[in-house]
Automatic annotation (TrEMBL):
It comes from the Archaea. The lineage of its organism: Archaea, Methanobacteriati, Methanobacteriota, Stenosarchaea group, Halobacteria. PROSITE patterns: ACYL_COA_DH_1 (PS00072). Residues 5-114 form the Acyl-CoA dehydrogenase/oxidase N-terminal domain. Residues 291-312 are annotated as: Disordered. Its cofactor is FAD. Keywords: FAD, Flavoprotein, Oxidoreductase. It holds the Pfam family Acyl-CoA_dh_1. InterPro entries: Acyl-CoA_DH_CS, Acyl-CoA_Oxase/DH_mid-dom, Acyl-CoA_Oxase/DH_mid-dom_sf, AcylCo_DH-like_C, AcylCo_DH/oxidase_C, AcylCoA_DH/ox_N, AcylCoA_DH/ox_N_sf, AcylCoA_DH/oxidase_NM_dom_sf. GO terms for biological process: butyrate catabolic process; fatty acid beta-oxidation using acyl-CoA dehydrogenase. Belongs to the acyl-CoA dehydrogenase family. Residues 118-207 form the Acyl-CoA oxidase/dehydrogenase middle domain. This is Acyl-CoA dehydrogenase. Residues 226-379 form the Acyl-CoA dehydrogenase/oxidase C-terminal domain.
């Protein structure tokens, strides 16, 4: 595991203290954007920690955001989900690839905890197969327009804009920033997923796209954006690791209080070994996530406006961390639910909710199968096995 600096340890302590002392008691398993907790973090200057200070962020590294996601998620995974989405996904794409005018307009509300930015990649006919994407940006006499549809977008009701992946006339995929109230944008339907979270289906018909709202266009730029997806994978790994920690904290507390056969159940060897195995898995996930977050290539990890090649995690390490953490979250939550017996199986119990929530990590931000393909590609066609350094 990466040895934290004194400053990083202090950051973890502050996040932990604020989350445990001030998070809204009813924010766990609410199904929507956890505004109360988001604003609490923003009031303490703990929201958007890795976005540039010029826009109201913390100006720290992506590794700091990983630590924040892990620490917050041990208390409230829903808040960690929002933190992950608004530090490692769409807003970070705007900061990395958008113009200065675009950053000045869209990032300050996000950093202040007043708004969010969604991301649209998947389509009904294009999930893991991004090459099948049909949403397109067309050139017309009046400028660029966007046509198509996106599905499974999270936090659309909380968002003012979305980063949308689309195919450009040159055949390459790129991204544009679209205002959700722009003409031609139709929030067609909201779905409720297994965890009770809202996801949305968007349609785009002749949506005007100002040139200034094009984030990525062209083959070379697309390669940089594909590399940036590794940050989303690392963020997902941190989020999954946080779920495992949250489940373990609940289970260990319960095992110390619950008595059967004249003693706390935490004194039975079978349960102690089950918890020990879960802790082993959790520690491995955290180590792999930290390893991926700190092995970067390119520019400085705290991307500035003029950095032409911002730092990205190693694809192999990011895929390993994402896959392991996703599998670990589901396994550890399931084992911890078993500690509670029938109590943990009841609707509304934290472990019942975590069980539904954790399953999504093996799908979102890249399925298990895609991560296995990434790992195999890197081993057989790339640089070989992970380096020892």
């Amino acid at each position: 595991m990466v040895t934290l600096t004194e400053e990083q340890r202090m950051l973890v302590d502050v996040f932990d203290e604020v989350a445990r002392a001030e998070f809204a008691a009813d924010a766990f398993d609410h199904g929507g954007f956890p505004w109360a907790n988001v604003r609490t973090l923003a009031d303490h200057d703990l929201w958007a920690v890795n976005l540039d200070e010029e826009y109201g962020g913390g100006g720290m590294s992506e590794f700091a955001a990983v630590l924040a996601i892990e620490t917050v998620g041990a208390v409230c995974p829903d808040t960690a989900n929002a933190l992950y989405g608004q530090t490692m996904v769409a807003p970070r794409a705007v900061e990395m690839f958008g113009s200065e005018a675009l950053r000045q307009e869209y990032l300050p509300p996000v950093c202040a905890g007043e708004s969010a930015i969604a991301i649209g990649i998947s389509e009904p006919g294009a999930g893991s197969d991004a090459g099948a994407m049909a949403t397109e940006v067309r050139e017309t006499d009046d400028g660029l327009v966007l046509d198509g549809e996106k599905i499974w977008l999270s936090y659309v009701p909380a968002s003012d804009a979305a980063v949308v992946w689309a195919r450009f006339p040159d055949g390459n995929l790129g991204t544009v920033l679209v205002d959700l109230d722009a003409p031609g944008v139709d929030v067609h339907e909201h779905y409720t997923n297994m965890a009770g979270h809202t996801q949305s289906h968007l349609f785009f018909e002749d949506v005007p796209v100002p040139e200034s709202h094009v984030l990525v266009r062209g083959k070379r730029a697309l390669k940089e954006q594909l590399k940036a997806l590794n940050w989303e994978r690392v963020g997902s790994a941190a989020y999954a690791t946080a779920m495992a920690r949250c489940a373990l904290e609940h289970a260990v507390d319960y095992a110390g209080d619950r008595e059967q056969f004249g003693q706390p159940i935490g004194e039975f060897q079978g349960l102690r070994w089950e918890v020990a195995d879960a802790v082993k898995r959790y520690a491995a996930s955290r180590t792999l996530t930290h390893d991926a977050a700190t092995h970067t290539h390119g520019g400085d990890a705290s991307t500035t406006a003029d950095a032409p090649a911002p730092a990205h995690p190693d694809r192999l390490r990011a895929s390993i961390a994402k896959l392991h953490a996703s599998e670990t979250a589901e396994a550890v939550v399931s084992d911890c639910l078993q500690t509670f017996g029938a109590t943990g199986y009841q609707r509304g119990h934290p472990l019942e909710y975590l069980h539904r929530l954790a399953r999504g990590r093996r799908i979102a931000a890249g399925t298990d199968e895609i991560m296995l393909e990434n790992i195999a590609d890197e081993v057989f066609d790339g640089g070989g096995l992970p380096s020892l350094g």
